[in-house]
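Supplementary Note 3. Input sequence used for the single-chain structure prediction.
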Amino acid sequence: MQKQKNLQLAVIGVLSFAVLFMSVGFAAYSQTLNITGAANVSANKWSIHFVPSSYQLADGSKSQKSIDFGDTAITYSVDLAKPGDYYAFNINVINDGTFNAVLQKITMSSLTAAQQKYLTYTVTYNGRTYTSTTDNIMDALPIATGSNTKTATVKVAYVQPDNASDLPQQAVSVNLSVAFDYVQSE
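The predicted structure, written as discrete structure tokens, is reproduced below.
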């Protein structure tokens, strides 16, 4: 029994020595690689907005009852009393950010079939007139290079319908909207 116990202790000792020797040997052959660095990030901004000081009523236009300007929103109210009356204004859109942009889409509210008989609603952007939602416009609005503004014209007109029975029989309030969707260009 004693002999077997001594043999077991000898085997444990040899195995312990082998494990210790392999650990030291492995440590001698291991290597750690490191990479360090720094990235400097420049300040940038995305800034496309209306220029309230550029607001101008079109010749012959009715004056609005109220108008409110924000950087990215304009809200107006106007009364059109009879056929031939219209409200139209011009406003500049500016890109004073650090990224070039493109107008990708114009989303316009739609008139009902009855409203289309006595009312027109148009938006002109950079010389092109739109009467409904339009995708894939891709009209460039570059950063401040001298051509970083575009003019938008909004016009709502009370028109004479073909048939007098198509005139509204009572006062009608029509809510109109347009959204200009810009994306970063390459």
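Helices lie at 2-28. The beta strands are 48-57, 66-69, 74-77, 86-95, 101-108, 119-125, 128-130, 139-141, 149-158, 178-184.
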